[in-house]
Amino acid sequence: MSNHTPGPWRLLANQGVVGADGLPIATAPGHPAADFRRPPDERIANARLIAAAPDLYEALQKIDTIEGCTGGAEVLISEFKHIARTALAKAEGSTT
User: How far is Cα 13 from Cα 64, in angstroms, rounded to an integer?
Assistant: First the structure.
């Protein structure tokens, strides 16, 4: 996925998420209207990445489970791969 705003992204209180260039990526509730200076395809890619954040978080949480596993790691690894692939597909806007 290369269309999203490059990192690092920062969370600013009462503003939302901004890119390294300081332009908004996602605005906080109550913040003035979203900044539309970013190209539409970049805004869509950013929205997909934000929407996939919980899935990406879940996949990353599985790493500790896999590392601490002494038996049956194949099942955990398979589950991790499924969660990670689903999260990436969501972030990339894929339906598969």
Answer: 30
